[in-house]
Amino acid sequence: MSEFFSMGGYGSYIWGSYAITAIAMIALLLATLRSLRNSRIERDQLETVLQARRPRRTKKAPKAS
């Protein structure tokens, strides 16, 4: 089993590379999730502003001729 982890003397480089890659992938995932959350918050705020500015449309009764 120790031969597997030492990988012919290059284990520290290989496992270090895996660790750095895993950390980078987790950081990218967290940044993406944070950006998604911020985008949703911004979208909700913009929709609220749009709702406040949009005039209410009322249905008009048809004119009698």
UniProtKB/TrEMBL annotation:
Q: Name one GO cellular component term.
A: plasma membrane
**What is the protein name given in its UniProt record?**
Heme exporter protein D
Taxonomy of origin reads: Bacteria, Pseudomonadati, Pseudomonadota, Alphaproteobacteria, Rhodospirillales
* Predominant cellular place of this UniProt entry's protein: membrane
Any one of the GO BP annotations: cytochrome complex assembly
Pfam families according to UniProt:
CcmD
Q: In which organism is this protein found?
A: Thalassospira profundimaris
Give the keywords, sorted. Answer: Cell inner membrane, Cell membrane, Cytochrome c-type biogenesis, Membrane, Transmembrane, Transmembrane helix, Transport
Task: Name where it's found.
Answer: Cell inner membrane
Q: Which InterPro entries match?
A: Haem_export_protD_CcmD
- Which residue windows are transmembrane per the record? 12-33
- Family listed: Belongs to the CcmD/CycX/HelD family.
Q: What does this protein do?
A: Required for the export of heme to the periplasm for the biogenesis of c-type cytochromes.
Q: How does it sit in the membrane?
A: Single-pass membrane protein
